[in-house]
């Protein structure tokens, strides 16, 4: 499964949305250079409040651009970076990936998929009613999270819009993504 990088974003301050950039630099073991969520240990405020020593499995947030068209049908305009993602993708079904999938981004960078982003009420603070569009239930009543995936940086490097994304599934059985 392959795709492309549609946009890249980072934000130095803790803000819901991230500003678009011409490029971002991924740093092995840390995340996006200069981003508020960069670090070895958890950097998301709700998780830091629970246990600041837990590992940061949310170093890089990836979100599929195709979601923007889906939520537009419900009347919501969303642009790259506005839902807090670092990398907006195109042409790759992020939500169908297995835990442990490697994503090769451009010529150098490699991230390992750790799980799903767990959408929170801040999404409604951005656009009232948007949370129900990215967090729903399937026909069996199971929660469906559509607000992207999280990853850790294995190999650093620069990532730019237009870069190729190549997905490499891990050996063994498929492990559906769970929230991290």
TrEMBL record:
GO terms for molecular function: catalytic activity; molybdenum ion binding; pyridoxal phosphate binding. Signal peptide: none annotated. It comes from the Bacteria. Residues 14-168 form the MOSC domain. It holds the Pfam family MOSC. This is MOSC domain-containing protein.
